[in-house]
Amino acid sequence: MSLTTFGVVGAAGRMGQMLVREIAATPGCKLVAASERPGHPRLGEDAGSIAGVGALGAGLGDDPAALFRTAEAVIDFTSPKATVAHAALAAKHKRVLIVGTTGMEKAEEASLAKAAKTARIVRAPNMSVGVNLLLLLTEKVAATLGVDYDIEIVEMHHRHKVDAPSGTALGLGQAAARGRRAPLEKLRIPAREGITGPRAPGGIGFATLRGGDVVGDHSVVFATEGERIELTHKASSRQVFAKGAVRAALWAKGRKAGLYTMADVLGLG
Ligand code: NAD
Fold first, then answer.
1. What is the spatial distance between Cα 122 and Cα 266, in angstroms, rounded to a whole number?
2. Annotated catalytic residue: which of 30, 92, 114, 161?
3. Which atom of ligand 1 is nearest to the CA of 160?
4. 102 lines ligand 1 (CB under 6 A)
5. Could you tell me the CA-to-CA distances from 149 to 135, 140, 181 in Å, in that order?
6. Do 117 and 242 reside in the same domain of the chain?
7. Within this chain, do residues 195 and 105 fall inside the same structural domain, yes or no?
8. Structure confidence at residue 165 as a pLDDT band (50, 70, 90)
């Protein structure tokens, strides 16, 4: 089995540490570089020690360029601004880049597409197999049921999450909108507060809950007079996202440059 060398940016973060553990535990994968934002208190320490799996020989640095020179595949669960800079480096060094960062603006998303002219990029707001199946099911159910079924997407995450609705909730909204053959921007109902009036038919609503240590719950509700269908996914460990990200990197290694999704990685169409 050929060895794949990995770099993790944001390696001291919640997902970063999980990724370091997952790479260390996956046969054929080796962590060779790790980075954090300049000024991070743990710079200079070994990324494996930070993640609790013992030293792996990858010191935490603050120069992402050095990381992209060294590793074949880089996994990025950081912030939109950092991810844009990492994508440019992936393009320059023709690397595999796995992007889990959420909350990206349109222009930031466009910079990923630009970088994917020379880099192999897999981007997914949720890297779990279960959620990617949920996306498919949501599109199918929305296409089958008419506008008589109101669609509401409910999500809950831990108290540290900074963006809302979650990237996954927005992805589910886009899947439902595809099923209804319209862009989400046209169907999205603004957040409700005060006297909102009755619900307009055909729209897609979002509700966001934040609290505690919830890893990620998502439900898509299809409600009409007399019945309700609910599709729900609950992640109980961040490990599912790390597993998906490592799987995506190994898959992308053999591909040509381009911007891919988890549906491509999982062969879901
Ligand atoms: P976190 O705050 O614990 O970790 C982010 C880390 O990135 C921090 O350690 C931070 O210092 C670091 N960072 C910021 N700027 C950097 C830079 N310029 N260079 C290097 N490191 C930098 O957050 P988290 O819970 O790990 O989530 C990170 C991102 O991943 C969020 O956008 C979150 O929504 C997303 N996420 C995606 C999935 C998925 O499956 N796609 C799953 C979980 C979280």
1. 12
2. 161
3. 25
4. yes
5. 18, 13, 15
6. yes
7. no
8. very high
**Closest Cα to atom 20, ligand 1: which residue?**
36
**CB-count exposure of residue 117 (10 Å: 0-12, 13-18, 19+):** exposed
d(CA 21, CA 15): 10
Do 10 and 78 touch, CB atoms closer than 8 A?
Answer: yes
Q: What is the pLDDT of residues 47-64, one digit of tens each?
A: 999 999 999 999 999 999
Q: What is the pTM of this model?
A: 0.90
Number of domains in the chain: 2
Domain that holds residue 210: 129-235
In angstroms, the CA 116 to CA 119 distance is 5
Q: State if residue 132 touches ligand 1 by the CB under 6 angstroms criterion.
A: no
Alpha carbon distances (Å) from 8 to 30, 62, 128, 177, 222? 11, 12, 18, 34, 39
* Same domain (yes/no): 93, 21: yes
Ligand 1 close to Cβ of residue 9 (< 6 A)? yes
Are residues 184 and 103 located together in one domain of the fold? no
